[in-house]
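are you around this afternoon, could really use another pair of eyes. what follows is a protein written twice so to speak, once as letters and once as structure tokens for the fold. i want to understand how the tokens follow from the sequence so walk me through it. anything you notice is useful, everything is just below.
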Amino acid sequence: MLFYLSLSPLVQLGPYTILTVDEGYAAVTQNNGKQMVLPGGQSHLLNHKNWKFEKFMTLKIQTDDLEKIRATSADNIEMMVTSTVNWRIFDVDVAATMAAETMAVSGRVGDVSADITKLRKDVLKQAIASLAGFIGGVNYSNTFHMSAASQAKKNQMLTAKAEAATGDGAEMPVAAAMPEENEFMDNPLYNPDKMGSSVEHANRVTRTYGVEVMSINIISATPVDKDLTRALASGAVASAEALQMETSARGQARAIAIEAEAQAARAKIEAQGQAEAAIIQARGEAEAERLAAEGSKAAADMLAQSNVAVELAKMDRSAAMLKGGEKYFFAQEPAMLSNVILKGAV
């Protein structure tokens, strides 16, 4: 008997009650008809017989599957929607007072379930109503091609970034080149930001009884009409094929442009190389002529320093002028011939 009492969170000792509440839970009690909520993580003593324990309430996050519903979109497409909802109790006093069943009709404590069945049903019904209202504002046929549209935007972003990087050598900033991630999610059924409107709508009601809806998530939304589904799928396939062709054409055009730019760059480099080679050759020839002139001048300077060398040079020049023997000179004096030859050499 003692072992059983040690494991039970509720121990009756005559008119007293010892109540142990785990963390993540709260205990709802009635003290002479006045509701008192005892926090978790400790033990409490109910010190008279009219202070009665009624039920435990969980404060943990709850995840529930919503029942499949047939909802109609703004363009009158009937869909079968599967979804989930996440919620939690944030105000136990209000929840116990306004929504939870805390008092058994029989008056016996054991007849009140520890589950929050009524509260859970209220939350799920409100979540379904808010989800149906949200779907009623969605134009499904315009948002069906989400994948193709998202891929188109992504490819346009990558193309713009590549063109900016290879065009003038300066890559455009990432913030300007890349749109926000949530811009790719054109279908509001799978956009968390847009789905937030249904969560806000649900919370306007559930907060009045102490519950906060954290998220409503659509798992699938399939048109009931199978022919319509096939038609929309065909449109999506056509959009994807057109996108693929456009992407291929963009790639080919870009490849041609890059090849042309490479050829122009090669021609420019070759022209620069030829010009530099011509400049180097001209400088070499000018330097050779300068060195030859300096050598001739040095030789002349050396000849000027020796009289014998000067006379020999004169004779060499004279011999060069008289080469062939076809010229004859006649003069009155022997010195005249040498003067004539020297003048011709000069």
Summary: DSSP finds ten helices and nine strands in the chain. The first strand starts at residue 10 and ends at 13. Confidence is low (pLDDT under 50) at residues 1-5, 168-185. The CA atoms of residues 299 and 305 lie 10 Å apart.
